[in-house]
Structure formats: structure tokens, C-alpha cells
Fold:
Amino acid sequence: MFRRACLFGLVAAFAAATVLGCGSGERSGKRRIAVIPKGTTHDFWKSVKAGALKAGEEFGVEIVWKGTASEEDKEKQVQLVDSLAGTVDGICLAPIDRTSLVPPVVRAKQSGVATVIFDSGLEDASAIVSYVATDNYKGGQMAGEHLAKLLGGKGNVVLLRYAAGSESTEQREKGFLDAIAKHPGIKVIADNQRAGSDAEEALRTSSSLLQSLRGQIDGVFTVCEPNNKGMLQALENDNQAGKIMFVGFDSDPRFVQALKDGKMHGIVLQDPFHMGYQAVKTMVEHLEGKPVEKVITTGEYLATQENMDDPRMKELLNPPKAD
Amino acid sequence: MNDRRPEPQFDDSDTIGSVLAKKWRYDWRVTVWLFTKTALGPLFIVWALFAVLDAFQQYGGSFAQIRSFQLIVVHTAAVAVPAFGMTIIIIAGGIDLSVGAAMALSATVGAWGFLHGHSPTEAVCLCLATGLAAGILNGSLISSLRVVPFIVTLGTMMIFQGAGRWLAADTPIRPPLASFAPLADFQAPFPTPAWHIFSPGVWIMLLLAVAVSLVLRYTVFGRYVFALGSNEATARLCGINVPLVRISVYALGGLFAGVAGVYQFATLYQGNPMGGVGKELRIIAAVVVGGGSLSGGRGSVLGTLSGAAIMAVIDHGCTTLGIGDMYQDILIGAIIVAAVAVDQYRQRKMAAAV
Structure:
């Protein structure tokens, strides 16, 4: 009889849940906007979160911040977009992959939930409201030009790539290579190494690179935060920090110190705080029925040892973060 | 209960098939058995828990909708299909750590096929063949080298991953949409003629579930699998061709990884050689939560299916409730440990009863 009672309890809970679920299906009050970063662990996304939360406060919307821990789990992000689409009014998404995230965005649109894409683009932009991002190609070009200037127009450089399939870093890599190609004295001696998406793997790849090309490298460009970290650590371990011209992309307190110490010679900066803010703001405007720009760039900057104490640079080098 | 028919007796060694065979006429005892002796019970408890919690949320109510259900089954299918193969392997006393990598490799080979102008049928066959070959390789290595499956498949996991990266030139293979149009909606949670209710992938998953159950229950091969996992020496003495059965078991596991490759391709629209990272543990977890025993001899398709569904429910439920990713990990981890602990307890009780 105990079993029968258990079963009855289960069925009752099931029925109650269904009834309650159907009864309270209506939404009321504040609008909810889901903000989905590529990953949750890197500082960059914490600044995006701070910007998104500020916009949420300013425009009176609730921000649902939810991301995957790994920046490589594409399936998980697809599931996340699908799951959240049922519970929010709008989605701001930084897609891990430019093709895999198209179907869930299209599905969200079909069920009446609009999407603003930020940070990294989608191959098929027809279903999205707006694309809010850094001009990554231009950022890569700036890095290339700066490195060429540092090297005086001649030398051997290395490009450390990020995991394959991310639109934003691919644009940086392309911009960098295009800028370097304009300087016939500079040779790219390694551009086929990928550092995955975490600093540990980047450290391994960087260490091997430095070892195998010992004495031949004059300049290095790394395309994002984990890569910068890995390369910086590898250069320090190898006692080559400061000797090899090192330009990175994206900021972190460690890189600011490295810039001050002359271990890094330039950092291309985005404005993640503004990106998070702008993505939410664009979504709010769309929900209010206002027209929005299809593409919004949030700016790219070059920090060097000389200009790093300017107030604006200081702010970009150490943007506000939210945990 | 006053009729003269004898009361059927069920015990822990029963499976769905045997329960239904003992008791042709469906009555509440079968339902009770399903809820108390299989992972279906915990699945409904978890589901109902999330549904109730969600209903009391300020913006709640979305969890109990059909839309949620459709999403959960699609997520379940992606884990359950390779987990069916893993169930057979685990029942036979083995383990396959390479399943995620084999799945990603199959998806990559399939994507390569689409990109190079093969018809969808050919590309899907390529995908399945890759999984099958991977499984045969695993089985042959384990049988011929006499190295434990844990080590062999740890090695082949990296081999498959490397092979996929080589084939794909280290970047996901993205064939144009037109080349795989018939597969585009294979894993779409909300099918276009609404009466289909579930995506084709989910229906195929259910068919596979029935097929594997029948094979395990009613074929000689199925009995061999249980015999091998329960006691290999006895199985050999009984005249079972152990190497052949073992290779077949891993081949079948590989074939399911190949099918899972189709699912992954249809979800991501690309062949991603790195797409299997971490998936093997989820797949093994589904089997274990569903009552499969890593020491072999025990496991069921219904259990595995419920195990996969429990994890999908937790994933979707936590997202709906706005519970952070980290708590989700902790919850799933706790459930895995609890499931195995309960299973051990029941086995001890059974042993004591005998």
C-alpha cells in the first residue's frame, strides 16, 4: 500500500504542476531580456555583464544573465537559447559559432522573441534585430600596423590563433595578416597554431612555439584574453618577455602590469562594458517599436605604454566588472 | 483483487519485457513497478519538482508547457542515442570513453561528405560507417591486445579526435545548407506540421530504444551480452565466443555513436571534430543514473532513457528557473553519486535476501 501511496503522490504532484503551470502562464510587469555570453569565466564577459546590468537598471528591464562555462560547447549554447526563448521577451546573444547558432535564433524569432547579436557575428543575419560589436577586422589591422611600426618594418612575426569557428577572432586574425602583408619586410613565420579557448592550453601551445622557433621570433600577436595570458606566461617562463615585441587583444589587470613593465608593447582594446550596455539598449528600443541600426560598432582602441595613463584608456584597460 | 488468478511477483531482476510477459493485462501493479524499480520514478519526481517550483515563480508557468517538453525530449535524444550503445557495452562489462570523439568524428566525416557533393543518403551512410568502424577498432584492440577497455578507449578517444581535426583541417566543416536540406529539421524541437509533435530525431530515438530492448531481451546475442558482463569466465565455459561477442558489442556501440553523429550534425549544422569533448561522461552518466552497473551484467534501455531525460530536465529546468550553471553541475553530480549509491544498496539487500 505504501507503493500505491507513493504513486498517488506522484500523480497528484504531476497534476498540480500542470494545472498551476497552465494557470499562471501570463507574464506581467517588467520586461525580461536574456543576455547570453560566449562563456562566463573570462573578465571580458564580466564587464559585458556590468554594462548589461546598468542598461537593465536604466531602462527598467530585468536582465537574465546565463552562459555556458566552456566557450566551446556549441550544443549547450544552442540548448540555452532554445530554453530561454520560452521565458523572456528578448535575447542578446554572443554566439560561440557563426553557423550553429542560426537555427535557434530563427526558432526564437518564429515564436515571437527577437535577438540582438553582440560581440561575434552570425553567418545568416536575416533573423536578427541588430549586430552590436567591435570592428574586429579593424582591431586586427591596428595590431598589425602597430607591430610593424614597433619592428621598424622588418622581422619575423608569429600569430597565435583562437579556437576555430569564432567569427570575431577570425576577423582579427584576418585584419592582422592583411595589415602585415602591406609590409614586405615582415614575414609571418607561424600562423597555423590554435590555442583553444583556455589559458592553460594557450600556455602549452605558446611554450612549444617559442621553443621550436627560438631565436627567430621578433614579434607576436595574440588574438584574445586567454591567448594573451598563455603567451605572456610562456614568454616570462622563457625569460623572453620584453625582448620579443608582443601585442595582444583585450585587457586584464595582468596585461596592464605587463604593459607598464614593458613586457607587452600594445593592447588592442574593445569596450565590453559599452557593448553589454548597447546590446540591451538596442533590444529595449526594438521592443518599444523604435527603429534600430542593423550594425552598431562599439569602438576599438590601442593602448601603449605612452598613453596608458590617459583617463579614457585607464577606464578601458580596467573596465567595471560584475560577478 | 479477489479473483482467482495468481498474484504476479516482481523482483529486482525483472525488466519491462518480463513484467509485461508475467502480467499480460496491464494493471496498476505494472505502473507501480515502473515507478519504483526503474529510473522513471526519479524522472517524474525531478520533472514535477521543477514544474512546481517554476509555477510559483513570478514569471513562471513556462516549464509545464508542451514547448518545454518538446525541447527536453530533443535534448534527451542527443544523449540517449549514444547512451543506448553505451548501455550494451556497460552490460557486457566494458566501457567506452571514445564515444564522444567517435560521435564528433562521424559528424565530421558526414559533413565532409555533404561538402564534397555526396547525396544526403550517402553522407549519412558515411557517418554511420565511421561510427561502426570506430567501434570495431575499439573491440578488436580490446580483444587482441588484452588491455582494459578504459585504457584502450582513452587512447582511441584521442586518436578519433585527432583524426577528425586532420580531416577537417582543424576547423569545423560547414557544408552549405542546400546540401543537407533533408537533415535541417531532423533535430528541430518544434516540427512544422504541428501534429508530428516531436522532431524526426526523437521518433527515431524511440524506435531505436524499442529495438535495443528487444535485442537485449529476446535474442541469443542479448543473452550473451548479459552473460559476458555477469561473469566472463562462466560465459567462456558455456561455449560463448567471447572475442566475437565483445567485438560485436563495441561495434554496435560505435554504430550508435555514428547515429549520434548524425544528431550532432543536425543540431550544429556542421561537423565539429572537437564536438565530443566532455560528452562521453554525460553519456556514461545517463547509463549509470538509469541503473547500469559499471561492474557489468546490469542495465536497461528504459533506465538509460530516463537517465538521459533526468539530466535534460535538470538542464532545462535550471535555465528556466534562472539557476546558475555551476549549481546545475553540482546537482547533476550529486544525482549521479546518489543513483549509484542507491543501486549499490539495493544490490546488497538482494544479495542478503539470497
User: Anything to note?
Assistant: Chain B touches chain A through 56 residues (CB under 8 Å).
